[in-house]
TrEMBL record:
The TonB-dependent receptor plug domain, residue ranges: 52-139
GO annotation terms (biological process): siderophore transmembrane transport
Source organism: Aurantiacibacter aquimixticola
Biased composition (Pro residues): 34-47
Record's protein name: Uncharacterized protein
UniProt GO molecular function: siderophore uptake transmembrane transporter activity
Length: 710
C-alpha cells in the first residue's frame, strides 16, 4: 500500500519537525555548544571578481563547526546546514562537459572523471581550509553550475596526512570487511603541490532465506537460497599542481587501480520436500584494471584566460559466469558466459573566458572519443563430457565507437543588484559506428544549452531557475548482446540506439532560518525524448531500445533543524525528502506506467547530538522508501534491499588523537526482497507462467570508522 507508507513517512517527518517546538519554552540561553552560526554575508574578496553580487555569499570557517571535531574539508561541508553534496554524474557522464558537481576548490573544478571534488576534499586537512563560500552557481563564470555551490578557499601549510579505516562485522552470513579505508599525504616539494592517496573500497554481503515459486497450476515449490559476494577496488591516485611561469597554472591528475569481484549463489529444495531433489549453482568472477590520466593548464591570452584540458581513461574487464543445475535423475545442465571488454575515452577541451560589456563570457570546444571492444562467448554444459561446450554467439562480439564534437558560448551578467542571468547556447555533432555482426554507422546533430536565473530577493533567501537542453550518454554495452545467468536474462544487442535528450526545468529555493536552521527545496521537471528501456525485438527476445517520449518530475527537500534553538543543546536533525512521479508508454502493453525502478517516495532523517562539555556524540538515522517495479518483456520485478532502514551510533572525538565512530546498522533487520512474475510470453498477451517470492536476510552490522590526521 504505497499511500499508507507515504502517510506514515510524512507523519514521521511532521512529528520530527514538531517535536523540537515542544521544548521551545525550555530554551537555555547559556548553551555550552552553539549550533553552526548564521551564514555570514560578506562581500567577496576583491581579487575574486565575481560576475555579480546577485546572490550574497554565505561564509563559514572551520571554527564554526568545531563541535563536530572535523578532520578534513569534506567533514565541514557535510555539516553545512541545508546543503546537499552533489558528486556529479561520475565517470559515466558525457565527455568532460560543463560543471556538474556543486563543489569547487579555490574557484576551480578538477580535471578528472574518476576522482570527484568530494574525494579530493576528504584529503585536505581541516587546518588547510580558510573558509567555505556558499554562492549561487549562476553568479560564477563557470557554465553549467546552478543552485547552491560551495567553494573552498584553501592554503598550504607543509606536510599533512589523512587516514580512514572502516572495518565492518556482519551478524548474518557475510564475511567481515577489514580492508575498507584510505590514507593520503598532502604537501609541497620543489614548487609542486601534491596529494597522493591510496584507497580501497571493500564490500561484502551474504544473504540467506526462503524462495517460494508457484506455477500456473498452483504447485508450490519451496527452496532455500544463499548467496555471497566480495568486492575490492584498490586504487592509487595522485594530484599535482604548480606554476611554471607567472599567471600560468598547471594541474595533473593520475589514477590507477584494480577491481576484484566474486559472487556465489546456491538454491536448493530442502531434504523434506515432496518434489524431486533440486540444486542450482551460480558463480561469477570479474577481474578489472583501469587508469585515468588528466590535466589542465590555464594562462592569460589577449583580454581573457585560456584553459586547456586533456583526459585519457582505459578500463579492461574479464568476467566469467557459470551456472549448473541438478534436478532429480536428469543430466546436469548449465551455461557459461565469458565477457572480455576494453573501454576507453579520450577528451580534449578548451575554455576561453573574458570580460566584456559588464558580463563574463566563455567560449568552449570539446572533442571526445569513446570506444568499446567486446568479445562475448556463450557455452552450454555437456553432461557426457563433463565440461562446457561453446555455442555460436556472434552477437556478443564487436566494437562501438563514438566521435563527438561540441561547441558552446556562455555569458553571465547582472540584471539588477539582486538578479543574475547566465545563458549558454551551442550544439554537438557525433558519429556512432559499430563493428561486428551488426555493423552500422550513424551521425547526429543536437542543440544544447541552458538559461539560468539567480535571484536573491531578501537576506537569507536565494531562488534559482534553470531551463536546460541536455543530451545523455549511451552505455556501449547495450549495442552488443549479453547474458545474465543468475537472473536467467538475455539481452539482444541493438545497433540503432540513440542518446537520450531532454528539456529539464529546475527551480531551487534556499532559505536560511538563522538559529533554527535552513532548508533547500528543489522542484524539477524533465521532458525526455529517446528514453532507454527494455523493448521487444523482432523475432522474439528483448533489448535496450528508445521510447519516443516520457516525463519525470518531482521535489527534493533538504533541511537542517538546529535543536539548540529549542533547548536541546548541541543537537541537530537533518531531513531529506524525495518525491517523484514519471510516465512512459509501456512498449509491451501500450499503457502508461512509471519508469523502471523509479521509487516514488523516500524520507531520510539523521539526528546527531554532540554532548556539551565532552568529546562524545551520539545519534541515529532512519530511512523509509516506497518501491517501484522493473519491467521486462516477459517479467515484472520488484527487487530491492531494506525499504525501512535504521542505524544508531556513538562517537568519541579523541581516541589517541583520532575520531572513532561505532555504528550499529540495519536495526530493523531489513532484508533483500525479490518479487517476480514471469509470463509465458509477452506480458500483454500471455498467461502467468510462475511467480517467485524470495526474501533473504542480510544481517545487522557493526561498523567502526576511525579517522584522523598526521
Amino acid at each position: 500500500m504505497p499511500h499508507t507508507r507515504s502517510s506514515i513517512a510524512l507523519f514521521a517527518l511532521a512529528a520530527a519537525l514538531a517535536a523540537p517546538a515542544a521544548h521551545a519554552q525550555d530554551m537555555d540561553g547559556d548553551e555550552q555548544i552553539a549550533p553552526p552560526p548564521d551564514a555570514v554575508e560578506v562581500p567577496p574578496a576583491p581579487e575574486e571578481q565575481p560576475a555579480s553580487a546577485a546572490a550574497a555569499r554565505e561564509v563559514y570557517t572551520p571554527e564554526d563547526f568545531a563541535r563536530f571535531a572535523p578532520r578534513n574539508a569534506l567533514d565541514l561541508i557535510e555539516q553545512v546546514p541545508g546543503f546537499d553534496v552533489d558528486r556529479g554524474g561520475g565517470g559515466g557522464g558525457r565527455g568532460f562537459g560543463q560543471a556538474q558537481e556543486n563543489l569547487l576548490i579555490d574557484g576551480e573544478r578538477i580535471s578528472s572523471k574518476s576522482t570527484s571534488t568530494a574525494d579530493q576534499l576528504s584529503r585536505i586537512a581541516v587546518d588547510n581550509v580558510v573558509r567555505i563560500e556558499i554562492v549561487d552557481g549562476a553568479t560564477l563564470d563557470i557554465p553549467g553550475l546552478s543552485g547552491r555551490v560551495a567553494n573552498f578557499v584553501t592554503r598550504r601549510s607543509g606536510l599533512s596526512g589523512q587516514f580512514r579505516w572502516r572495518p565492518e562485522l556482519n551478524f548474518g552470513t557475510a564475511p567481515a570487511q577489514w580492508f575498507e579505508g584510505e590514507i593520503s599525504l598532502t604537501g609541497a616539494l620543489g614548487g609542486v603541490d601534491y596529494t597522493v592517496a591510496l584507497e580501497n573500497r571493500d564490500f561484502a554481503r551474504g544473504r540467506v532465506g526462503p524462495v517460494i515459486i508457484t506455477d500456473a497450476d498452483g504447485l508450490v515449490d519451496e527452496r532455500i537460497n544463499t548467496s555471497s559476494n566480495l568486492f575490492n577496488r584498490p586504487n592509487l591516485s595522485a594530484f599535482f599542481s604548480f606554476t611554471p611561469a607567472e599567471n600560468v597554472d598547471v594541474n595533473i591528475n593520475m589514477l590507477g587501480g584494480i577491481e576484484i569481484f566474486d559472487f556465489e549463489e546456491r538454491e536448493a529444495r530442502p531434504f523434506n520436500s515432496d518434489l524431486l531433489p533440486f540444486l542450482q549453482r551460480f558463480t561469477s568472477d570479474s577481474d578489472e584494471w583501469y587508469y585515468e590520466l588528466g590535466g589542465d593548464v590555464s594562462f592569460p591570452l589577449g583580454p581573457g584566460q585560456l584553459k586547456l584540458i586533456a583526459l585519457e581513461s582505459y578500463d579492461y574487464r574479464d568476467r566469467l559466469s557459470n551456472s549448473l543445475l541438478d534436478e532429480g535423475d536428469l543430466p546436469t545442465s548449465g551455461s557459461q558466459f565469458i565477457r572480455v571488454a576494453e573501454e576507453g575515452e579520450r577528451i580534449g577541451r578548451g575554455e576561453y573566458g573574458w570580460g566584456m560589456w559588464g558580463a563574463d563570457w566563455q567560449l568552449s570546444a570539446e572533442a571526445a572519443f569513446n570506444r568499446l571492444d567486446q568479445v562475448g562467448r556463450l557455452f552450454a554444459f555437456d553432461p557426457n563430457a563433463g565440461e562446457y561446450v561453446e555455442l555460436d554467439f556472434p552477437e556478443g562480439a564487436g566494437g562501438v565507437r563514438e566521435d563527438r564534437y561540441e561547441a558552446l558560448l556562455s555569458v553571465g551578467f547582472p540584471v539588477t543588484e539582486t538578479m543574475t542571468v547566465q545563458l549558454v547556447g551551442g550544439g554537438e555533432y557525433s558519429q556512432i559506428s559499430q563493428t561486428g555482426g551488426r555493423a552500422n554507422s550513424r551521425s547526429f546533430q543536437r542543440p544544447k544549452g541552458s538559461i539560468n536565473i539567480a535571484w536573491a530577493p531578501a537576506d537569507g533567501l536565494d531562488i534559482n531557475l534553470e531551463v536546460a537542453r541536455r543530451v545523455g550518454q549511451l552505455d556501449f554495452g547495450d549495442f552488443l548482446a549479453s547474458v545474465d545467468l543468475s537472473e536467467e536474462q538475455e539481452n539482444a544487442g541493438n545497433a540503432e540506439l540513440r542518446p537520450q535528450q531532454s528539456w529539464e526545468t529546475t527551480l531551487q529555493i534556499a532559505k536560511n532560518f538563522g538559529d533554527f536552521g535552513s532548508a533547500t527545496l528543489t522542484l524539477f521537471d524533465q521532458e525526455i525524448e529517446d528514453l532507454l528501456v527494455i523493448v521487444p525485438v523482432d523475432g522474439g527476445g528483448e533489448a535496450r531500445g528508445n521510447l519516443e517520449s516520457a516525463t519525470r518530475r518531482g521535489a527534493v527537500l533538504v533541511a537542517t533543524a538546529q535543536l539548540g534553538a529549542f533547548g536541546f543543546t548541541g543537537a541537530q536533525l537533518d531531513i531529506g525528502v524525495e518525491w517523484e512521479e514519471s510516465t512512459l508508454l509501456d512498449p509491451v502493453t501500450g499503457l502508461e506506467r512509471r519508469f523502471d525502478g523509479n521509487d516514488p517516495f523516500e524520507i531520510e532523517l539523521d539526528f546527531r547530538h554532540d554532548v556539551p562539555g565532552s568529546d562524545f556524540a551520539w545519534g541515529w538515522s532512519f530511512q523509509d522508501t516506497e518501491r517501484a517495479p522493473v519491467f521486462r518483456v516477459e517479467e515484472q520485478i520488484f527487487q530491492y534491499g531494506p525499504s525501512t532502514f535504521g542505524a544508531v551510533f556513538v562517537e568519541h572525538k579523541d581516541v589517541l588523537g583520532a575520531t572513532a565512530n561505532l555504528r550499529f546498522g540495519n536495526i530493523f533487520n531489513g532484508g533483500d526482497t525479490l518479487l517476480r512474475t514471469v509470463y509465458d510470453g509477452p506480458r500483454d498477451t500471455s498467461p502467468i507462467l510462475f511467480t517467485e517470492d524470495r526474501r533473504r536476510a542480510l544481517g545487522q552490522t557493526i561498523t567502526l570508522t576511525l579517522t584522523g590526521s598526521f
